[in-house]
Amino acid sequence: MYKKSLYSLVLRIFIKKPEFGAFTGLFFTIVFFSLSSNKFFTINSITAMFTLAAELGIVALGMSFLMISGEFDLSVGSVFALSTLIFVKLANFGILPPMAFLLTLVICTFVGVLNGIITVKFHIPSFITTLGTLMLWRGVLLYITGGFTVSYQADKDFLFLLGGRIFAGLRMTGVWFLLLTFVLSFVLIKTQYGNWVFAVGGNLNAARASGVNVEKVKIMNFALCSLFASISGTCNLARYVMSQPMLGTGMELEGIAASVIGGNLLTGGFGSIFGTFLGALLMGIIRTGLISIGVAPYLYKAFTGIILIVAVIINTTVGKRTK
Amino acid sequence: MINTSNEPVVKMIGICKKFGAIQALKEVDFILNKNEIVGLVGDNGAGKSTLIKILAGIYPPDKGDMYIDGKKVNWRMPLQARAEGIETVYQDLALINLMSISRVFFLGKELIKNHYFRILDKKKMDLESIKSLHMLGIELPNPSEIVGNLSGGQKQSVALARSIYFGAKLLILDEPTASLSIKESQKVLNIIKEIKKKGVSVIFITHNIYHVYSVADRFTILERGEKIIDIEKKYATPEDIMKIISTGKAESSNN
After folding, report:
1. Which of residues 17-36 of A touch B (CB under 8 A)?
2. ipTM higher than the 0.90 cut
3. pTM as predicted
């Protein structure tokens, strides 16, 4: 009571608001960079940071949703790249860009369904399933392209919707990131499906005993995770107007990092989509902030690593308290 | 849901069950009357859990008949038993520690306010869960509290209240007081008495004779797969029951 009261108060805040840690981290990071450099807190810089965070962020949103239901997906980086190639190939073939875009999303969603079915039906850890599909799709990409970049040669008007520049450093990608955060957060917190997602990750057997179709929830979340990776991939395509076969390498780990920094438990059952939003933002800010204060950008990974470890320590403490 | 005839809620006749070479149940008869609490007691391996698993539809019996409210049943899966209002509350509770009370309370049967988007009626869920806990004499003021922060007895209470809310007419309680402190056990026993007042029948499985003795109307004692006695509370003291269990013989009672 007496000595432990501050500690348990903080713990209670974390249990109620998983994004509290990311919020605090973000606040101090912004204060630090603003004091260190007068180039940091400008409209150009802020909008550019937001755009930079958005592509990783959209991937991390899908990852978090899947993680809350107790699984995760290492193949998002490969699916991210795969979506750019599918889109480019379809559009270059002559299919109208909006149709090509929709087809790309549908195909990538099925890629996610495949991850889900393999994991759920054969009782394989998703770590292994998606490590396998990570290599599979990357291999397919390299095989099809021969390792070369494929440029987009169809009509570019539609691409504005995905990644066009709106003003200063802000691109449409940022708008989608914000919108998808709201939609997914709403589904997770306010709907029946969201309740099932928490339950499946929190205690699989209890969820099943209560009549939740746990297999269906997991497969749908794998599909959603791949869908989000492909939305992000097509936004990237809109920015570079080409598909690079090694695009998105390592993105799975950055996505998991953003999600964990945002307060999502690796073991499932607990987390926040808004937290993931803040986590991705924090990573984007560190990346650009380090450049603006003149520190070597290579240190970005080192800083992210430290923040990740701190976040996991906090999450584990919260998780232990309630498991 | 609750029957109005005089038929027993459960009548099991000549139930036999073998697992490989082991005869888990041998010609066991079991009766549970309307609005009755029966203590199903016996030593480890007596066949208590096999019997209730058959009743809950988890295994079919090898031989024997089962009647629910006088109607013959032949269950192939637990869902069929649950559809008849038979709910089992297990020792390792089917609750989720990382979720709030009201979310867990309504899990799988959430209250919805918009059918198209299946939006949760959170307010009503909060209100109803607290209200139904209150009706069993359980005071938990905050429906948003995480289940993991509740004590063992409070968790047990939530699980019980949930079964009652969703229309259970027969509750099977598997060692409901096993991991609880003395104070908490007392609270859970009081809740069981409240549940009886609502017209629900209860099968109470336990090793703790004193706990079951304070709430049960009758005891069914199993020993190595056979029923050795069915005895009403007024004919036996807790000591008599323990003696029957430890000797495996029914003669020692005054009955």
Report:
1. none
2. no
3. 0.88
